[in-house]
Amino acid sequence: MDIPSRQQEQRVGHFRQILLWPLQLMPLAAGGPLQQHHQVLAQESASQPWRELADEFGGDPEQFQERHYSEFVTFLPYVQRFLYGEGGGNDDNPQQGGSPIRVFRRHDVAQVRMSFKDSETPLCFDIIHLDLYFFHDIDVVILVVEIAADDLDLRQVQDTLYRFGRAYPPYWDDDGSGGHCLRRSEWLAADGRVLATSDYEKRSKYLAFVSRFRAPCISSHWEFLLRPLVLHHSDEEGPVRYRQIEYHRMPLLAYLAMDDPRRLDRGDFARLVLVSGPGRSGSLPYSDQHLEDFEARFCYDRYWHPQAEQSGTRLLSCGHAFIMVGSARDAYFTGAENGLLGQFRHQFFLLALIPHFHKAALLMLSDRLVTALTRLQIGNAESVKTFKRDIREVLEVFLRFTHRYWFTEISDQAQARALFAMTRGHLGTERLYAELREEIQDMSQYLDSDSLRRQANTVVRLTVVTTAGLIATISTGFLGMNLIDAAQEPLPDRLLLFALVFVLSALLTGFAIVRSKRLSDFLEALSDERLSQRDRLATLLAVWRSRRPPGSG
């Protein structure tokens, strides 16, 4: 590949990348309802590095910053309640006004050192945040990794976007390294110690894991970052288990403060937003036909003025990635508090977090439906009972998700509204939601119809038994007649008569229940005027005839 010289490369004065990695959480108890995994993590605080983050909206009002206010007013009221809860609410109970989001953060990892395949010199990026986002009543957690670096060339940025957020290698190159992955990724402590290292090159590990568990294995440095959460399909012990829910490439956001963003050509922007890796300057990463409507599909150019002295800001989104590009000389673009850098880390981060959470939650519910169907054994009464309970639980979770988390509009601000619509359009969450709702409604209708069928059968059987009892009651109680005058007999004789009548009544009632289906057929035939007396007699005889077992005779 023809690679331009470093002098010809565009310089990136400041670079930020935020990875969003949605994962599905497994039930804490087999067959149990949804539980709050963050509470388990909080209870394990003494033995693990994750600590719950204090709510910035619940502290001293004098310390409340303007950027928090700007972030808050970006969203519509019902989204504000989802993200921040309500004033005076109970933070431990979202149903009483608290926020349904719980954030945990770790501080022991200070840097990540990346070694690339075409360079002997590794790059170090500062770790800004390592967070875990939990959501009330939804078995989903999102790992958020924010990194930053200064003074990079464009090719290094493109390579970082392309290779860093890989949970596992899709294949291996001829030299044994993981395809599309970094040669090595290392988490570093503040004193420079290596806390964990990737193992993309261990092909036998990944092959054996998939062969054994029929599920993908993740690299060791990502496993380290998530502990004490452990991979569901593994032999490790941990208080909370998770599983992969999407593609192995993690969704991302990127911020690029360029020396002169107007020097980026169409191919450069396409490589950034489509995360296709570095390429030859002046070329496109894909065919002209594929990128014919590139600007309309992926670019938001409301504030992009490439012909003006101040180029402004270009925003791009493909669903998987959100990219913000602007000038490093623009004080507003680089402002960390009230500028676009601050908005990127807060408002735009949430604009990406919400649709990715929507998609992860919908995929999680779809997976639970498939799991319930897989475990169903039609001939097993206990399995059918478990299936009904699981489906009703999924329906309840879906209803809570719809009313608490599902939004089609989140802001009245034109830019936020357009970018949210663009991202969710690329992710296909609207279509996924409609498909899941239809599947759940089909399941619910099946359960309702099955319940109605069972109730109808029960009513028929009770009607037959009642009819038989009515005949016996009228026969023995006509005009208060007593066939046996035993009122003056000794108590033992009366008890014996009572027991005899009780046993006979119980046997007759039991017989009526056992043959209630046939008796109901006889009653139906008896009321059908179209049938002859012979047909009705045949139906009556069928009540007494023993049914041959299947396969006999």
Report on this model:
- This protein has a domain at 23-55 and 99-148 and 155-248.
- It has helices at residues 37-43, 66-73, 77-84, 154-163, 203-213, 220-226, 266-273, 294-298, 331-334, 340-345, 347-375, 381-404, 414-427, 429-477, 491-514, 516-527, 533-544, and strands at residues 11-25, 51-52, 101-105, 111-115, 123-135, 138-153, 184-188, 194-197, 229-231, 240-244, 252-258, 299-300, 314-317, 321-327.
- Strands 1, 2, 3, 4, 5, 6, 7, 8, 9, 10, 11, 12, 13 and 14 form a 14-stranded mixed β-sheet that branches.
- It contains 17 helices and 14 strands.
- It has 553 residues and is α+β, with helices and mostly antiparallel strands.
The total of beta strands comes to 14
Which structural category fits the helices and strands?
A: alpha+beta
Outline the biggest β-sheet.
14 strands, mixed
What distance lies between the first and last C-alpha atoms, to the nearest angstrom?
A: 79 Å
Q: How many helical elements?
A: 17
* Overall body shape: elongated
Gyration radius over CA: 34 Å
Helix content: 40-55%
Report the β-strand fraction as a percent range: 15-25%
Mean pLDDT: 85
